[in-house]
Specification:
The protein is an alpha+beta fold and about 240 residues long. Helix content is about 45%, strand content about 15%. The chain is built from 9 helices and 5 strands, in the order αααααααββαβαββ. The N terminus is likely disordered.
Length: about 240
């Protein structure tokens, strides 16, 4: 069970914001220029009366054996270290986990999106059973590898509203080289409606302007059937 932070944690010395503080140097010189202790001080935020946050960060690293040792400890063990407490312990572990996930996701192979069947197989189990429509954007890299799959709109039983800006904002945030749209038809019939085609045309025109082409729009259904606008010759638009 996690321990509550001690009362002494409220008696702190704030981290100096002077010109040579780690926050200031991170902004001026870049976060890569900071030492492990500097980074740890930013995450900790405060020290204790008589113990600056910089001293606390250095003592913490010495005690646990550096960042590697810190990552091997649980929140309770870190919280027991004088000057840390539960809240700071969780912030430290959250920061380490963010870094770990970022690294793992940057080096792992990205699954290739080969064709509409691949897209339909992945999304049928996730969307086909829903009683309302959802629109997702698949962002691809330059080799059609999956960068991300994110929901951009959710509607009621009568459909959903979406603009080209909503779609492209996600694709640009994820630095997509190309994109695919996916949505579901709760009716069970994956045939694209006139509204589906009109919306797809607007997104395709806008995506061409910003250099992130729309490759396909796949519609899945509860029956397991799907429709690819690329396969049907609706895309690309002339």
């Amino acid at each position: 069970m996690l321990e509550l932070a001690t009362a002494s944690e409220t008696l702190f010395e704030p981290m100096p914001l002077g010109p040579r503080g780690p926050r200031e140097r991170a902004l001026e010189e870049g976060i890569l220029m900071l030492s492990d202790a500097d980074l740890l001080a930013i995450v900790l935020g405060t020290g204790l009366v008589g113990c600056s946050v910089f001293r606390l960060a250095n003592e913490l690293l010495d005690r646990v054996g550096g960042l590697e040792g810190l990552g091997r400890l649980g929140p309770s063990a870190i919280a027991e270290i004088p000057g840390v407490g539960t809240a700071k312990a969780l912030r430290l572990l959250a920061g380490l986990e963010i870094g770990r996930r970022s690294l793992m996701r940057s080096i792992r192979p990205r699954p290739a999106v080969c064709n509409s069947a691949t897209v339909a197989a992945w999304f049928t189990s996730r969307l086909a059973w829903r009683e309302y429509e959802e629109l997702w954007v698949i962002s691809l890299d330059g080799r059609n590898g999956l960068r991300s799959a994110r929901r951009v709109a959710q509607g009621g039983v009568h459909g959903l509203g979406i603009t080209s800006r909503d779609v492209l904002r996600v694709a640009l945030q994820d630095t997509a080289a190309a994109l695919i749209l996916v949505h579901n038809h709760p009716s069970g019939d994956p045939t694209p409606s006139d509204a589906d085609v009109a919306m797809t045309r607007k997104v395709a025109e806008a995506s061409n302007v910003v250099g992130v082409p729309l490759l396909d729009h796949v519609i899945v259904s509860s029956t397991g059937d799907y429709c690819s606008m690329l396969d049907r010759g609706i895309l690309p638009f002339e």
